[in-house]
Give the backbone structure.
Amino acid sequence: MRKIIVSMWTTLDGFVAGPRDEMDWLQIDEQMLRYERELVENSGGLLLGRITHADFAGHWPRAAQDPDQTEEVRRYARRVDTMEKIVISASGNIAAWQNTRRHERFDPDEIIELKRGDGDLVVYGSLGVIRSLVEFGLVDEFHLLVHPVFLHDGKSLFEGSRPPQRLKLISAEPFTSGVVLTKYRPAERAAAS
């Protein structure tokens, strides 16, 4: 059964973007690019919300062919461009991009059915999708790339007054940029395995 892996860049104070979606705080290095490339090379598809899908569709197909990009970035872009993309969008206004299919709403039973496929599903951005996945206990792993910065304001991965959810550390790897890649799984799932 495939896993659902949430991969998210975050700050020390828990923000995933600035108040207006700013991402100028990122500290990208070769280790981070290698992690991202290996993640998608070993996965079967992406599970995205409409906005993240549109952002990716507008960027990665061009980056795959851009000679000004590094080979590492082009390799990542080529893989993302060709892999399966599943978009959750009620509006149906999704960007044209190869190998994309749409689910009109978040349905936990449909997500469980998706998990019966081959190759893990990676979730980037898509805060609404992530929050729904967490609510229904459908995330198998969280890969958090924690950047050594405080934003003090911005968009949080989670909002609202939900009860605590315990996680079990799988691994932690510091990068030369100061970013630390932490991998977790839900504690109840870790206890069962």
In short: Helices lie at 30-41, 50-65, 71-82, 108-114, 127-135, 187-192. The longest helix spans residues 50-65. The mean pLDDT is 92.
